[in-house]
Write a structure and sequence with these properties.
Length: 305
């Protein structure tokens, strides 16, 4: 009798649960995952544009590449002259067509405040009289960033603005001169501008939630169940799908087929292919009614909104 009970138990599916950090749209409301992007910055032909605005755009691109492209260079930078037409939706739509990118960011030329000079300090590293002193300068500014996602059903240009200040050091020949500060301010400001660009991406970075996901498993002599489960546990979803499909071809048990199809649907969901996930889930439901099916179907529906 004991042997019979164990035999029945071994034929029933078991489950294991994983806590997974899932990516969700940014605080801006834009879902930038798996979308191509380009950044356009306004260039008025001034030295400030070359040293500050371009640096800001570069820092902006760097952080988005780190977040969405694994650090690979994938975002193109474009400069455009200042003109009223660049602030229109048509301009954004034209940039989508010209660049072939899904999302366009427009960084306007900042509004700069009056630089504030601090105390002069001797620079011990140089002997040149024109550079023997360093003056710390605080530059306040306001920036505006517009974003257009051509794949967003809202079809709107979103606008964001903020103000801050950067501090840099200006070489000064012993006495603080406002004219000299204004002239030399832009010489060493690019690294600080890049930091501003990194910080400006805050609204566009993914938000994350830890969620629980459950998969089916059979305690079987077939080691492929262990292999697939281990691959899933390590987020090697493609490998897990391949192994589950191999098992699927070798079984005629309807409940096992349903469990395998459900697992494959979950893996497709993790890979972001929601249409394929639904297809596998439909197949699972035709084989056998599973308790977990409705929950996964609901999650897929939420992602497809």
């Amino acid at each position: 009798m004991s042997a019979a009970v164990l035999l029945v138990a071994s034929c029933s599916p078991e489950t294991f649960t994983m806590n997974i950090d899932m990516r969700y749209p940014s605080r801006s409301g834009l879902d930038l995952s798996k979308k191509s992007m380009a950044i356009v910055y306004v260039d008025e032909g001034k030295k400030s544009d070359e040293s500050f605005v371009k640096g800001l755009a570069s820092g902006f691109a760097y952080k988005l590449e780190e977040e969405y492209f694994g650090g690979h260079e994938a975002i193109e930078l474009f400069s455009v002259p200042k003109d009223s037409s660049v602030y229109t939706k048509k301009f954004m739509e034209d940039m989508v067509m010209d660049s072939g990118k899904d999302v366009i960011f427009l960084i306007d030329s900042p509004e700069y405040g009056t630089p504030g000079a601090g105390e002069n300090k001797r620079n011990p590293r140089v002997s040149d009289p024109d550079s023997s002193y360093l003056c710390s300068v605080l530059l306040p500014f306001k920036i505006k960033v517009s974003a257009f996602d051509s794949m967003d059903k809202n079809d709107k240009v979103l606008q964001y603005s903020g103000s801050s200040a950067v501090r840099t050091e200006v070489a000064n020949p012993g006495a603080v001169s406002d004219e000299l500060i204004s002239k030399r301010l832009w010489d060493n400001i690019t690294p600080e501008a890049e930091k501003v660009g990194v910080q400006a991406t805050g609204n566009f970075l993914s938000t994350w939630k830890t969620e629980r996901y459950t998969l089916y498993y059979y305690n079987s002599a077939d080691t492929r169940w262990d292999k697939a489960s281990q691959a899933a546990y390590e987020y090697r979803w493609q490998e897990a799908i391949k192994t589950w499909c191999e098992i699927l071809k070798s079984t005629s048990n309807h409940e096992k087929k349903a469990c395998l199809c459900y697992n494959i649907a979950t893996a497709c969901y993790m890979l972001g292919d929601y249409t394929l996930a639904i297809s596998w889930l439909d197949t699972a439901d035709k084989e056998c009614e599973l308790n977990l099916s409705k929950g996964l179907r609901s999650r897929i529906a939420q992602r497809q909104k």
